[in-house]
């Protein structure tokens, strides 16, 4: 996430249970889970991003079931956690709109520019391996392609998250209205309804046009304002009522949320069974849509109810790497896919990609964290200084 270990309010805010060493470890666990889940999500498809269409239904079964599990903690959970932390940070350290957005821009957009250029060049390796290098090189010489990469984050399949998050954060003053209005948690329903409805209008109306990706992204940002309000409402409940909640209604609320999560997972499994049977992604399942997009809210609220439990402290040490995991894992995912052999079953491919990608990604992010000159690329260090040393000016 954009916050670092030193500035992250999750490590400063007084814990509801009075356990200073364990403050918001539950939130750290969600951050780390979201990062690892995105690796699993991308590993559970073939190198073309498809559900192993050439395999049999039996061979697709376990990879797709794993995907249904990984998809519980999706990029929308990242977005909610980011806004949750921002609301807490603003409560702790108030600042104006300009200063807040400059901070978010430095944390998000400058690393985004670095990784956009990096993946635009790095992807040429996979393009060469799969035989479409000429097409990939042609794209790099197209201004419209670069505009899309810089505005929509299309340089790599995961990069869309950063410009989307920044677009949502532009509306953070609206989210602050929800901090003292818990009922605005329901705004997520309105936002997701808007997204479902407008996307089904936009795709047929603009199919095949250059404007379609931008229209879809605008719809997504507007729809996800509901997530922002929901995250702010949960942050407000946490900041104002955590002690009282844990002492009174923790257990019944936990039970309700757990049953809700189980119901959503059952719907997700029903949807993924269709993918297993056909070898094609399902885009028009309304029940599956709601199960997918409500799960981040339920998961965040569910972990809130468990905040007073003992969480492993190591989660707080690894949680700051979550953004780095998200940003860096495609490097090793691509390399792992190039090492796969056609004879491997889909499940063997998934296991191989996870085995290669997760430890190497963690190693790279840790290396970047320890390197003062590069830590900023994964949100874990100060931006490089462009100041010219005085002695160099005198020599000039």
Short recap of the structure:
The longest helix has 34 residues, at 97-130. The protein is mainly alpha-helical. It has helices spanning 25-43, 57-70, 75-92, 97-130, 133-140, 143-152, 161-169, 172-176, 187-206, 212-223, 225-248, 250-278, 286-305, 314-318, 322-339, 346-370, 390-395.
Describe this structure in words.
This protein has helices at residues 25-43, 57-70, 75-92, 97-130, 133-140, 143-152, 161-169, 172-176, 187-206, 212-223, 225-248, 250-278, 286-305, 314-318, 322-339, 346-370, 390-395. With 396 residues, the protein is mainly alpha-helical. It has a domain at 1-43 and 74-146 and 314-396.
Strand and helix layout:
Blueprint: H1 25-43, H2 57-70, H3 75-92, H4 97-130, H5 133-140, H6 143-152, H7 161-169, H8 172-176, H9 187-206, H10 212-223, H11 225-248, H12 250-278, H13 286-305, H14 314-318, H15 322-339, H16 346-370, H17 390-395
């Amino acid at each position: 996430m954009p916050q670092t270990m030193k500035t992250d309010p999750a490590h400063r805010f007084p814990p509801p249970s009075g356990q200073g060493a364990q403050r918001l470890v539950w939130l750290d666990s969600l951050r780390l889970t979201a990062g690892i889940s995105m690796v699993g999500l991308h590993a559970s498809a073939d190198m073309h991003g498809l559900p192993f269409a050439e395999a049999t239904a039996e061979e697709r079964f376990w990879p797709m079931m794993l995907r249904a599990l990984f998809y519980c903690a999706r990029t929308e959970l990242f977005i909610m956690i980011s806004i949750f932390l921002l609301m807490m940070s603003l409560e702790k350290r108030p600042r104006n709109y300009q200063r807040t957005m400059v901070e978010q821009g430095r944390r998000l957009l400058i690393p985004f520019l670095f990784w956009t250029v990096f993946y635009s060049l790095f992807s040429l390796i996979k393009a060469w391996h799969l035989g479409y290098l000429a097409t990939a090189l042609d794209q790099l010489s197209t201004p419209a392609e670069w505009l899309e990469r810089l505005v929509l984050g299309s340089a790599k399949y995961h990069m869309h998250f950063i410009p989307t998050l920044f677009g949502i954060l532009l509306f953070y003053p609206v989210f602050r209205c929800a901090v003292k209005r818990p009922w605005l948690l329901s705004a997520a329903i309105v936002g997701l309804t808007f997204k479902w409805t407008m996307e089904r209008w936009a795709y047929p109306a603009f199919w095949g046009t250059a404007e379609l990706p931008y229209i879809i992204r605008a719809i997504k940002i507007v729809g996800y304002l509901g997530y922002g309000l929901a995250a702010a409402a949960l942050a407000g409940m946490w900041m104002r009522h955590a002690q009282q909640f844990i002492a009174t209604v923790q257990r019944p609320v936990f039970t309700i949320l757990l049953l809700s999560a189980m119901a959503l997972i059952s719907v997700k499994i029903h949807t993924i069974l269709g993918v297993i049977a056909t070898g094609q992604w399902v885009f028009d399942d309304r029940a599956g849509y709601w199960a997918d997009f409500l799960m981040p809210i339920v998961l965040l609220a569910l972990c809130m109810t468990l905040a007073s439990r003992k969480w492993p402290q190591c989660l707080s040490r690894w949680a700051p790497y979550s953004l780095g995991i998200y940003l860096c894992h495609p490097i090793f995912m691509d390399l792992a896919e190039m090492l796969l052999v056609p004879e491997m079953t889909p499940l063997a491919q998934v296991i191989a990609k996870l085995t290669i990608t997760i430890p190497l990604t963690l190693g790279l992010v840790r290396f970047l964290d320890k390197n003062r000159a590069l830590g900023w690329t994964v949100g874990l260090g100060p931006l490089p200084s462009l100041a010219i040393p005085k002695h160099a000016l005198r020599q000039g």
